[in-house]
Amino acid sequence: MFENIYKEYFPFWEKISDEDREYICRNSHMFTYPKGRNIHNGEECSGVILVRSGSLRLYMMSDEGKEITLYRLYRGDLCMLSASCVLDAITFDVFVDAEEDSQCCVVSGPAFAAVSQRNPDIRIFALETAVSRFSDVMWVLQQVLFMSMDKRLAIFLSDESARTGSDTITLTHGQIARYMGSAREVVSRMLKYFAGEGIVEVSRGGVMILDKKRLRNLTL
Amino acid sequence: MFENIYKEYFPFWEKISDEDREYICRNSHMFTYPKGRNIHNGEECSGVILVRSGSLRLYMMSDEGKEITLYRLYRGDLCMLSASCVLDAITFDVFVDAEEDSQCCVVSGPAFAAVSQRNPDIRIFALETAVSRFSDVMWVLQQVLFMSMDKRLAIFLSDESARTGSDTITLTHGQIARYMGSAREVVSRMLKYFAGEGIVEVSRGGVMILDKKRLRNLTL
Lengths: 220, 220
Fold this sequence. Notes:
The structure is a homodimer.
Chain A: H1 2-9, H2 18-26, E1 28-33, E2 38-40, E3 48-53, E4 56-61, E5 67-73, E6 78-79, E7 95-98, E8 102-107, H3 109-118, H4 120-146, H5 149-164, E9 168-169, H6 173-180, H7 184-196, E10 200-203, E11 206-209, H8 212-219
Antiparallel strand pairs in A: 1-8, 2-7, 3-6, 3-8, 4-5, 4-7, 9-11, 10-11
Helix pairs in contact in A: 3-4, 5-8, 6-7
């Protein structure tokens, strides 16, 4: 089962020995996580996670429980930051939650580390995967530092709408604030302003986008 | 000249061919940058910079000129982010300034990229260097998002004092604000509060730390 999946997603698969391929498969498990389940909490080495279906959210959390979403992983994406034992240079902790019901293959961290020691191609693949996420995180940092709150919220609502394929974002103000690393009052105030402008309608169920064009203009 | 320097700082040096070593040396230049000089402005591929003496500051800048320091590089440190043509996965722009008079060896980006294509050891070294800086940037993001301004300012003053070996930080409030990605008024207000508490003394020349112990407590 794993053999066929890894053949598709690991560019190094054909370059390593039969023994190493077998070793990786033997140290793999298939998990199905229900929506909302925490998969990795930054502490142990949870392993290398390959998303088969659904989506995962990667985020940082402060001691007080404040969060900021770093990026999301979809079908075919690989999470290296949950395998801190593979990459010595990663010294920070992230959290990973299933954002939908998600099926994932997980390769044990120590097993992946062992074969990557023997195979430079695996090592390069793991590092390149991590470095490509560096760019996502820099984008978040740039947003948080340099963008006004109205722009950030407009981008968040647009992204959520595109991601879910719906004009209604079914999240509470508190949830939106947590995902953006902001405070609920700040989000509520800004949503009230957007509603006053006729850009969104705020209801108990969430936030409905009324004027996509103006929302998009705010993101520019 | 370069041969002896690279032997010391590049762990892959003995593992690559004589031709590749010669090629890297032939595509290297020694530069002396005066304090304050901008070395890399995010646009072109400035090359791989190895610091021989002095120090460089790496930062992001918004369209409005707001800055945030990501990290500093000292003797023996290597800057890969100034060589975006070497690492495809790096898609963000950083700026690099000489913070003191600094001497640097610079390997041309295309030349470094060419030899790293041929040598997995170089590729792994370049990626590991980039990934290790990922952790520094995550720390900055954490600070900006989750820390109160008094704590951030206390950490900044402590770090500057440790870095320069002096109790007086000879920076204006505006400079401190720029380095921290904050606003001058916010820094001035907080320094006034620190001064009122007897932790620092603010003068025309900069900020003098009076009570190291209380400043340190604020950083915890």
